[in-house]
From TrEMBL:
Family matches, as Pfam families: PC-Esterase, PMR5N
Location relative to the cell: Membrane
Topological category with respect to the lipid bilayer: Single-pass membrane protein
Isomerase found in the keyword field: no
Domain Trichome birefringence-like N-terminal: 135-189
Name assigned to this protein: Trichome birefringence-like N-terminal domain-containing protein
């Protein structure tokens, strides 16, 4: 296998996705490369890919839910570039629109964004108060308090569903300080986490997290928090797929995760094998995912980082010639948020369904932002940022304003879990080098740990547990 070239932007991509196992990815990767060269053998190869997938899944079923990450895209795309296949030969001569976008979807050509909008948002006047979140107290402003008696809320090794990307202690992190912090709002107290009470709230219900790998981290945190009081034979988890379901029999309840990094339909909807460098989305198709989440009783959404990787392509459902429009990430995210918002506005009855939106999870990619003239990132960071006003460049303000604007019309239906400011302080909480990496690290990388640190995701136990304590507060 060719050595992988990893630019910093590609590295961000790598970190954004997750994986079942290196071997699975490599199998799949080889298959995909062959597939690209021999399109005509698709049915045979598809069967083969499926077979290999099953075998790999069995071989690498690490007993727990494992996530799916790989840079497959770069192998494939690099090989295409190297053999300089002209664009036209990669597109069937009689282009016909695929029914569903997948990683092989292509644009026949790309034009500038026309300014077109998807559906209309239902502009109903908002009556009443924002649900759940007491106006008397802002739970999101306050400070972190070192408290090694109340936290961590579970032990890393006690959670059978822990992900190898997030199990920092297991992967060699020597300092455990990041586990011992609780969040203290300025003018009030958070409810103490009570696992029995949480299960009572979930009895007979479906709780579903929908979004990207950050939201998946919060979901893993949630099932780690919840599983301790359920006997092993009374809980189960479905095989890893776009929708993964944790089930607790005696409560007749599920805690689920749906991979939908752009919220609307896109060519990145396969959690195993998604395409990152050319993101194509259908801004008018939220229903593909909504059909999976519409039956859930409690929904927790996020989306952000996938919109921060440059322009995205729009393929409207009515477009039959494969002509995409290109739009900048923020514009694309706004279209997706509007499509999502219009679904919420017309489908959510707040008396029956709770909907939460989790704001931007900050990154800590440049230590100069909290320590001028330094040149690192989150690697080796063991302390918290104490400047209350600290705001890193990774948390894009125009995006925050857009999200706030879209959510403002939904305040009776959607509760915001505004984690951004409180999470900004936690430069100590990222895995950095203490996680499983799927790509082979070169000697140069190994000699410079900061160069391959993950400063995007969060160690568990850790910061996402506190996001879940906030969710518990508002449920
Ligand atoms: C596309 O072209 C192939 C052969 O070139 C033909 O068999 C197929 O029917 C065509 N499909 C459509 C939708 O025209
Ligand atoms: C908690 O932290 C204090 C101060 O660092 C330390 O003395 C104590 O041993 C710790 N307790 C536990 C249970 O880790
Ligand atoms: C974690 O493990 C330690 C030692 O094994 C134990 O003292 C502690 O109570 C455990 N914490 C939780 C939350 O289970
Ligand atoms: C946790 O919640 C349960 C059920 O609501 C309650 O009976 C129990 O006393 C609570 N435990 C604590 C420590 O508050
Ligand atoms: C379990 O919960 C589902 C809703 O999630 C409900 O339809 C079903 O009737 C419940 N079953 C029992 C035995 O309570
Ligand atoms: C979240 O809080 C920040 C300030 O900490 C604010 O700028 C932002 O608008 C808030 N976002 C939403 C969606 O309320
Ligand atoms: C919110 O609703 C108002 C009218 O109630 C409308 O003018 C505005 O465009 C809506 N904003 C968004 C972001 O949908």
């Amino acid at each position: 296998m060719r050595k992988i070239r990893i630019s910093s932007q590609h590295r961000l991509f790598l970190l954004l996705s997750v994986n079942l196992s290196l071997s699975l990815s490599l199998c799949l990767c080889r298959m995909m490369q062959r597939w690209h060269k021999k399109r005509t053998h698709f049915p045979l190869l598809a069967a083969l890919i499926f077979f290999v997938f099953i075998v790999c899944s069995i071989l690498y079923n690490e007993r727990s839910i494992q996530q799916i990450h790989q840079n497959l895209d770069h192998h494939v795309d690099d090989s295409l570039k190297k053999t300089s296949v002209p664009e036209s030969t990669t597109v069937p001569p009689n282009y016909s629109l695929p029914v569903v976008l997948d990683r092989f979807s292509t644009c026949r050509s790309t034009v500038k964004y026309s300014g077109r909008k998807a559906g209309k948002i239902v502009h109903r006047p908002e009556l009443g108060h924002q649900r759940g979140i007491e106006e008397s107290c802002d739970f999101f402003s306050g400070k972190w308090v070192f408290d090694n008696t109340s936290h961590p809320l579970y032990n890393e090794s006690d959670c059978p569903y822990m992900s190898d990307q997030l199990a920092c202690h297991k992967h060699g992190r020597p300092d455990l300080g990041y586990q011992y912090w609780r969040w203290q709002p300025r003018n009030c107290n958070l409810k103490r986490w009570n696992v029995t009470e949480m299960w009572e709230k979930l009895r007979g219900k479906r709780l579903m997290f929908v979004g990207d790998s950050l939201n998946r981290g919060q979901w893993i945190s949630m099932i780690c928090l919840l599983q301790s009081i359920i006997p092993a034979d009374k809980r189960s988890i479905s095989p890893n797929a776009a929708l993964t379901v944790f089930r607790a029999e005696e409560y007749n309840a599920t805690v689920e995760f749906l991979w939908a990094p752009l919220l609307v339909e896109s060519n990145s909807d396969d959690p195993v094998n998604h395409r990152l460098d050319e993101r194509i989305m259908r801004p008018d198709s939220v229903l593909k995912h909504a059909s999976q989440w519409e039956q859930a009783d409690i929904l927790v959404f996020n989306t952000y980082l996938w919109w921060r990787q440059g322009p995205v392509k729009l393929l409207w459902s009515s477009e039959t010639n494969g002509i995409c429009e290109e739009i900048d990430g923020l514009g694309g995210m706004e279209l997706a948020m509007e499509a999502w918002a219009s679904w919420v506005a017309s489908n959510v009855n707040p008396l029956k369904k709770r909907v939460f939106f989790v704001t931007t999870s900050p990154t800590h990619l440049w230590s100069r932002e909290w320590e001028p003239r330094s040149e690192g990132n989150c690697y080796n960071e063991k302390t918290l940022i104490i400047d209350e006003a600290y705001w890193g460049s990774g948390s894009d303000l125009p995006t925050m304003r857009m999200v706030e604007k879209v959510l403002s019309n939904l305040s009776s239906k959607v509760s915001v879990i505004n984690i951004t400011q409180l999470t900004e302080y936690r430069k100590d909480g990222h895995p950095s080098i203490y996680r499983k990496f799927w790509e082979t690290l070169s000697p140069e990388q190994l000699s410079n740990p900061a160069s391959y640190s993950d400063c995007i995701h969060w160690c568990l136990p850790g910061v996402p547990d506190v996001w879940n304590e906030l969710l518990f507060q508002f449920l």
